[in-house]
Amino acid sequence: MTTYKIILFSYKLIVELNNLRDLTKRIRWLPCICIVSLSFLLSCHLKSQPDNIIVKIILPKNKTKSFLGKFVYLIDASKQAEIDSLLVTGDTILFNKKSNTSFVPFMVSVSKLDTFNGHAFFRPFGFSNPYFKKSFYCYFYVDKGITIIKPYFMDDNTIQSSISGSKQNVPYLKNIELKLPGNDSLNRQSIIDRNISIIKEYPYSVDILNQLFWYKEKFLTQDLKKQLTYFDDNLQKSQLFKDFADYFTISSVFDKSFPSSIKLEDKNGKYQEMGNKHSVYNLIVFWASWCGACRAEIPKLKNLYKKFGNKGLTITNISIDGEKKDWLTALAREKMPWKQLIAIDSTKTVIDINYNIKVVPKMYLFNNKNQLIGTSENNYISTKFIDSLISKEKAKMNDF
User: Fold this and answer.
1) pLDDT (0 to 100) of residue 101
2) N or C: which end of the chain has fewer CB within 10 A?
3) How far is CA 3 from the centre of its chain?
4) C-alpha span between 193 and 3 (Å, rounded)
């Protein structure tokens, strides 16, 4: 129904209502007036904000009852942080968020709160991948406009699950992936050419641009710059393109340099340097409160600190938590007696530009000349590996 027709219909109803002398009949008409007015206001609201980010979840009728009175959450996938929450009152859940001029599509999930062994966690809704049979995804890209999700339920295969909305999800759900170059220089050019053909097909794709940033260290700088030229103007104006520019200035020392110029936030909101450039050894530990392997390493780190802490070893933990409150809760529980900082929002980007943090925990050990001795990404032997590195260096140094 157009806005004009809604106004006309509402006017006729009001005129008809005024002509009714019977109060009982007037009352019967009131719900109709309210519904029409509400529809009109909602229509105007959505049309006046075309750049809003809208996520609409449609629950099947036979599942709605189990969600009534409970909250559903919109979660930022990269930060694992809550964007918004809504109380379920019917079979339709509508998230409506404002965007800004610098908005770039990003990945989210819609989740409910669940528990496992007494621990609360966000359990995302799944949906059918329209490009692959019997394939189900939990994450998707949100963009300006509306994305509609009909969730998948494992216990009822008769429910039709689907996703519609942003074109950003097309290459993502099709599993379109860039290829990484190997050591063969002849093969390298064919790989770059193949990647460029993909970018030309999806020049708007944030997912493909994110892939390029994620594996930036795998490419020669000249190859990165060449591929970047084929993305559209909107992406070339985005913050991620600026991050590439920052990366190009430090690419020769990527994932190797001591972080002397990087300052991060401590638990009191003050910014401090990572590590201590005057220490005999600096151990930089990247972790997150939600990472089980990271939490399992903490007792071993305490033993390491007890063994070498009074002999010149400085430990700095860097959290990549998306929510500061989760980090603070973990600190209160773990009681680690060394420097604790968090890389969040813009400072997390600084870390991504300078370091190759694809898994946590990850540890970097630097000597007294701020030179990198070694790293460890193995979740099971990281502290043991670092211990062996320090012990070997200790044998070489008379003053350690």
Assistant:
1) 86
2) N
3) 38
4) 51
Q: String of b and e for 168-190 (b: at least 16 CB within 10 Å)?
A: bbbbbbeebebeebeeeeeebee
| CA 367 – CA 272 distance, rounded (Å) | 20
Q: What is the pLDDT of residue 9?
A: 45
Measured distance CA(296)–CA(308) in Å, rounded: 20
Q: For residue 123, list its beta bridge partners.
A: 112
Q: Please state, in angstroms and rounded to a whole number, the distance separating the CA atoms of residues 97 and 147.
A: 12
CA distance to 181, 285, 314, 360, 379, per residue, from 295 (Å): 35, 12, 19, 10, 10
Taking a C-beta distance cutoff of 8 angstroms, is the pair 122, 110 a contact? Answer: no
Which of 145, 117, 139 has the alpha carbon at shortest distance from 127?
A: 139
Q: 255 φ, ψ to 5°?
A: 65, 20
Q: Looking at the predicted structure, is the pLDDT value of residue 157 above 80?
A: no
pTM of the model: 0.79
